[in-house]
Amino acid sequence: MSRSVVVLGAGRSGSSLVAGLLADAGLDPGGDLLPPSEGNPTGYFERAAVNRLNEEVLAPHLGGSRVAVPPRLSWLAALPSVSCVTADDGQRARMQALLPREPFVLKDPRLSYTLGAWRRVLPQDAVFVCVFRDPGRVAASVAADARRDPDYYMGHPGTPAAVWQAWRCIHRAVLDVHTRWGAWAFIDADALVDAGDTRALSRLVGRDVPRERIDPALRRSPATLEPPADVRCLHDELRRRAVRDRTERGSVLTVPGVRARRVRAEPVRPPGGVPGR
C-alpha cells in the first residue's frame, strides 16, 4: 500500500527534486503550487498556502533565531529548539484542510521546524524523508539564488556562516527530535544525482519511484565553500544514515517514548497516537 510522504530538509538541498520524483510516482502534491523559477526551473512542489501557514506558525519564534530573518525567510532561520513550535486549533484545522488526497507528498523546508505542529493532522501511516546536500553547495546555492532575486532575500545576512547556522539547526531538529516518531529515510541529494538510485524512496513509499527527472545538469552550485568542522561532522552523520537507508532493506520506525529501532520496511505501519522554498 502506498504511503503519504512529508519531505523535510534545509532549503536549496534537493528537496524539490525528491518531491518531484514522488509526484512522478503518483503522489499528489496538491494545488496552488509555487511556480518554477530560474533558481528552480523544474518546480518547487510546495503549496503557497502551506508556506504561508508555516510562516505564521514560526513567526512568534523568530526572535530566538540565531540568524535574524523576516517571516518569509523563516526557512533560513536558525532555531536552537523546536519543542515550543506548536499550532492552535484554528491553525490545525487549516493544516487539515490543506492536506491533498492520499497518498500525497507534502513539502516545505519550514516543516523541518514545524513538523511537531503538523503531526496530529497527518495520516498515521505517513512517512518522512530528510533530504540533505553538501553544506558547501547549499551555501553557494543560496548565494546564487540571492543574486538572482535580491528583493526576496532582503533581510538575510547573506553569508555562508548564516546559512550554515540554519543548516545545523534544521538537521539537529530532524535527528534529535523528529525522528523519534515515524518511518524515515535520509536521502543524500548529491548521491541521488550521481547514481540515480531511487530504491530507498521506493521502499519507504511502497511503490516504484521513477528516476527520469534526475538531471545532473541542474546541479549548478559548486562545493567550493568549506563549512566549520561541526557542520562537516553533521554532514558525515547524515551521509552514514543515507548509506544505511540505500543498502539495508529497512527503515527507521519509532514510537513515542521509545528510541529508534530497525524494522522491515514492508508492510510496516507506524502505530497510532503520534503526538501532536
Structural description of this entry:
- With 277 residues, the protein is an alpha/beta fold.
- The protein has one domain: Rossmann fold (3-Layer(aba) Sandwich).
- It contains 9 helices and 6 strands.
- Strands 2-1-3-4-5-6 form a 6-stranded mixed β-sheet.
- Strand 5 and strand 6 form a beta hairpin.
- The chain is globular, with a radius of gyration of 17 Å.
Keywords:
277 residues, alpha/beta, Rossmann fold, 6 strands, 37% helix
Summarize the structure.
The protein is built from nine helices and six strands, in the order βαααβαβααβαααββ. It has 277 residues and is an alpha/beta fold. Strand 5 and strand 6 form a beta hairpin.
Oligomer: single chain
* Proportion of helical residues: 25-40%
Q: Biggest β-sheet, characterized?
A: 6 strands, mixed
Tell me the number of structural domains.
1
In order across it, which strands form the biggest sheet?
A: 2-1-3-4-5-6
Per CATH, the architecture is: 3-Layer(aba) Sandwich
* Spans where pLDDT lies below 50 across 5 or more residues: 250-276
CATH class call: Alpha Beta
Give the CATH topology.
Answer: Rossmann fold
- Relative strand content: 5-15%
Tally of contiguous helical segments: 9
Rg, rounded, reads: 17 Å
Order of helices and strands: EHHHEHEHHEHHHEE
pLDDT average, as an integer? 89
